Amino acid sequence: MSVKGRVHSVETFGNLDGPGIRYVIFLQGCPLKCKYCHNRDTWSVCGGTEMSTDELIADIEKYKNFFASSGGGVTISGGEPFLQAEFLKDILRKLKNAGIHTCIDTSGYVNVSTIDDIIHYVDLFLLDIKHIDNDKHIEIAGVANLKTLEFARYLSARNIPVWIRHVVVPTITDDENDIMDLARFITTLKNVERVDILPYHSTGKIKWEQLGFEYPFDHIRDAEKNDVLNVKRIMSETGVKIDT
Ligand code: SF4
Question: Other C-beta atoms within 10 Å of 115: how many?
């Protein structure tokens, strides 16, 4: 059986989305509406190209020796990968059968009661926590953060490795008290291998404009090195082990 899904694009040489060199699959569809989304064209689950999991596996096999020798593997990103749950499960199962390291890059906006049969095919999660304050999360992402935080606790309870990611958007996601709250939450998790603090940049704006949408964060400047260092410092002082 080969399940079909909607694929936005693939990247055969990713080095930002998990350990080693990654073959990265960007799936269509996202239930969030982040105001700084850099992949605005992934939101519709009807977009992209229809592909079967077998087609993707055949392409991945061509690069397998290359990324495996770097300690890498395949990362499934989006959009939100869990939105195409059957496709996700099928390709993860095939990847694990082929002995390939698997990683999912997710917002965590999922019902944890529905994913037990998927997560055991995943070696590592990259979990974006966009804002620890629920009201501010709704303001920037269009949905509450409760599912994301529940998902983080769910992975922790099962001891599944996770890298937490937080994007520093100046004046929006870098308030000192919020960062301290985020750090305190992270310290309650027992499965966090790494915390990545990433700078916001406005390079996604062009996609919004190409699609005919106004870019909501036009008035927000890009994050600079010091913005990131400041957030890392607060995290570190609140007990999160972080590379500075
Ligand atoms: S979760 Fe990712 S893909 Fe979805 S809207 Fe937010 S930034 Fe864009």
Answer: 17
Q: Yes or no: say if 38 and 32 are a contact pair by the CB < 8 Å rule.
A: no
Residues in the ligand 1 pocket, defined by CB under 6 Å:
30, 32-34, 37, 39, 42, 78-80, 107, 141
pTM listed for this prediction: 0.97
Mean pLDDT of 128-145: 98
| Domains of the chain, each with CATH number or no CATH | 4-237 (3.20.20.70)
pLDDT digits (tens, 9 = 90+) for 51-100: 999 999 999 999 999 999 999 999 999 999 999 999 999 999 999 999 99
* Separation of CA 15 and ligand 1 centre (Å): 19
Query: Looking at ligand 1, which atom is closest to the CA of residue 109?
Result: 1
pLDDT of residue 1: 80
Task: Pick the residue whose CA is nearest to atom 8 on ligand 1.
Answer: 37
